[in-house]
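Input record (Table S2, row 389):
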Amino acid sequence: MSLRYLTAGETHGPQLTAIIEGLPSHLQLDFEALNLELARRQKGYGRGRRMQIEKDTAQIAGGVRHGYTTGAPVALIVENNDWKHWQKIMNIEPMEGTDEEKRRVHRPRPGHADLNGGLKYNHKDLRNVLERSSARETAIRVAVGAVAKQLLEHFGIRIAGHVIRIGEIEAPPHNLPLSELARVTEASSVRVADSETEKKMEAYIDKIKEEGDSIGGVVECIVEGVPVGLGSHVQYDRKLDGRIAQAVMSINAFKGVEIGIGFEAGTIPGSQVHDEIVYTKERGYHRATNRLGGFEGGMTNGMPLVVRGVMKPIPTLYKPLQSVDIDRKEIFAAQVERSDACAVPAASVVLEHVVAWEVAKAFLEKFGGDSMQEIERNVQGYLAQLEEY
Ligand SMILES: Cc1cc2nc3c(=O)[nH]c(=O)nc-3n(C[C@H](O)[C@H](O)[C@H](O)COP(=O)(O)O)c2cc1C
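Output record (flavin mononucleotide complex):
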């Protein structure tokens, strides 16, 4: 069974829900670690008031018994604590009332899904679009990814994300081992490895916020301990780098993906791009460098995976851009919904979890089994084969 999931729920609805199918039995779940990931997504300099209202926790409503998966679909729920204030506005039953009472949206925000969704689904209340297109949905994607992360950790695969750039402020390159990178960036308000850069980024975000504007940036995630051979060269939709790129682009506001040196690969000669092959008895085959970010031929090559994504500035601006009122077809300022000025630190947490999911999916495709014990045997067999190769 291929690993898959679906999510449902609105930003101001009662809850976000996910069903994960295809997890093996006997995976021990650490509920505290799962909730810690949700808390990590809520942190970050530049986030608005909602993050103080919501203290996300995940409930498990199926597929887990006495702390272990049973092999049945796992149902996850993240409640929206703000729901009590929105019950009437988001009422599932028919409701009489004024536009104001319904908090109807009719001045679409440039850069958001409002107008396209309104035209496509024939909604005159754009709230029917924005409620689902909101990045609140990334909370449940983090919960799903946190389960994937725990599966990967069991097999020694670790993952860490951090911020590379916010607007015009770029972090200097670092040489930290993965665990140290995770520790240092966890303590940073903007998830950056360098404290000088942190201060500059905070000041920059303050300035942007004061101007009623928003700002994006670049985030990176590194995955270590991935065996060679996840994904495949034989079919377009089995190339794991391609699948990761799709998943990253599906994160709200992400506008580009790079693997390894990414776009720089088109600017320098091949001798400076390709990673030379080395063999030692201790490490087997590996690469002298990792400029291609752990992928060749759509397959992992045993080196750490390095994935970057660029997030555009948040579309909701307190000093709104020009838009058109869909009732009057006249120019008006776009509607303002409560919003963050910068969500790049949170986006780095989302990136980690989205990438973890794709790696876990490819891992189960390679070593598939119905129980953790069966997968462990398959992994051992493969590692023995690699040693003999
Ligand atoms: C972590 C995170 C938080 C976000 N917060 C907001 C927000 O507060 N206000 C907003 O307008 N957009 C926010 N966005 C971006 C929008 O959800 C996104 O731009 C929108 O869904 C349109 O999709 P697109 O930008 O991918 O085309 C956020 C994105 C992420 C990843």
